[in-house]
Amino acid sequence: MTISLAVFLAFVASTLAITYWAAKRSRGASAYFAAGRRITAWQNGFAVSGDFMSAASFLGLIGLIALQGFDGILYSVGGFVAFVTILLVVAEPLRNIGKYTMGDVLAYRLRPRPVRALAALTTLTSAMFYMIAQMVGAGALVNLLLADSGITYNMAVVGVGALMIIYVIFGGMLATTWVQIIKAMLLSACALVLTVLVLKHFQFHLIDFFAAASQIVFHQQGHTVIRDFLQPGLRYHPPHGALDLISLSLIFAFGTAGLPHILVKFYTVPDAKTARHSVVWAMVLIGSFYVMTTILGLGAAIVIGPDSILAHGGTNMAGPRLAQALGGDIFLALVSAVAFATILAVVAGLMISASTSFAHDFWINVVHHGRERAPGESVLVARMAALVVGAASMVIAILLGPTSNVLILATFGMAVAASANFPVLALSIFWRRFTTAGAVAGLSVGLLAALALIVAGPAVMGVDPPGVTGAARHLVQAQPWFPLENVGIASVPLGFLAAIAATLLGKEPEAERKFNELIVRAHTGLGAEKAAAH
Amino acid sequence: MNRTAGASSHDKSDPTQWDRIAESKEFKDLVAVKKAFIIPGFIFFFGQYLGLNLLVGYAPRVASVRVVGTINVGYLIVLLQFALGWLIAALYSLIAAKFDALTKDILARVDHGERAD
């Protein structure tokens, strides 16, 4: 316990030092929002990984695999595949066309005010889902680790919230990036050591390890069950399982490529070529991390067992408890401290992307027609937005309580990104004919469809037996109207269809005329934002 | 450094330059070679990913067929998906060097007095 606290405090101290250093260097909007565009390829690769490998992937994913085996492993693959979309389709055009936000790309040849207003809204929505997931994870960790120290779930949520507000307000993107780089290193190292410990448990005989994973014993509704955790079907089963899976894969394939906090990272590098190399770095780091999570999840199922995971700490604690079982209290402390660090880094990334979008897209470009009334106004507004968004997420995380599965919450954020952001982003880069009406329709229909179907689906609606109370109880006690937990199969096509249909209804000659300019910029980088001289 | 806009001054002085570049043979070649890699790569990768999910969803028995010890078809396809992603990333980094060279040619032909690099 004291080691955990010491490691965590060391991380906090070093990140605050980084924040102080970054705050002294940071002058002007490009420095605050985009780290002066001077981050190198490997640095940004680590930062993107640090931004993406969240508490959801570390805590939620290991727990999911530990309880649901192969069906959980599909989430591991999902987290990785989208980076191919980012590499081939998104990163370079984004860097070449935009300035600080996804809204920059959308507004390039469309009428900026409606498009930016909606882009800010979808950015804030998806960032909030994600952020709440991280904070719940932070609180849950504290519940497990420091239960007898007097620090409660609520205090942990407030603590994480306060720290991230400090990083973002004072350190901007530069501090956020370095916090993420350090965290990605810690997390990768931690996952590697834990994987080695799991395999060592089986004397490095992979065949024995997988043999053990094929005979997991647990209890279900009073019966003893033995299941092969490498076989599909533990989570997704008839009647709707297959559709739910396809739906999940759609969200993953396109969602990550529309996540605002990932997209903004490509503005922090000097040019498109560096952006490309940084995606490759990120793919190596993220891919190896997710391959390791499959071992860790199955390892937790073997070593701790699903029954014990559910009884003590729930799904989110499977990873830390695996660390304790294999490496003792010291390793538990280290892993928990790294999980904390992870949460801080991801929350800071979400926070800065949300507040940047509010300040740059909404305040400056929508409300004030693209002009700062005083120098530094956009940075000031972003700092205030960070405060408000941070406080709001703290309150919601406290209301939700520690038992909500953080991976599922994060998937909702991704559903919004996949259904609202990605269709419009892709169409505006590739379709000459695309119009403002199309972007407005795509963003709003995608956002509403994702939200409405989540609310009408089994995550929110369901009939619980009388014994279920608290956060585990469904919010609405009724049969769900929409059968699938993953809404992508309906909401992603709806986002695309709305964007295409609304475009075909009218013409926008101005937008078509600027398409040549857009693609020349996208492909050649001519006129792209340059790195700060110093 | 605080820049006011991504649009630099030369698009005001010469609004037709974008159209000229967009319609030039060099630019069309660049877009064509990019598409020739990106579109098949994208379709192939996500085709496999969709295939994995269809297999697991609709033919779980096939995915459960054991290949080495208890390791089954499903898990091997999962590993293959990671490997394929890395392969595409490696190939793309190599091929993109060619895109960069083509881009450099295009930029060299553009009359621009104020490019910094």
Can you tell me about this structure?
The complex is a heterodimer of chains A (534) and B (117). Chain A has 534 residues and is an all-alpha fold. Chain A has one domain: Up-down Bundle (Sodium/glucose cotransporter), CATH 1.20.1730. Helices cover 73% and strands 2% of the residues of chain A. In chain A, strands 1-2 form a two-stranded antiparallel sheet. In chain A, strand 1 and strand 2 form a beta hairpin. The longest helix of chain A has 50 residues. The radius of gyration of chain A is 22 Å and the shape is globular. The model of chain A has no long low-confidence stretch (mean pLDDT 87). Helices cover 74% and strands 4% of the residues of chain B. Chain B has one domain. In chain B, strand 1 and strand 2 form a beta hairpin. Chain B is mainly alpha-helical and 117 residues long. In chain B, helix 3 runs antiparallel to helix 5. Chain B has a two-stranded antiparallel sheet with strand order 1-2. The chains are: A mainly alpha (534), B mainly alpha (117).
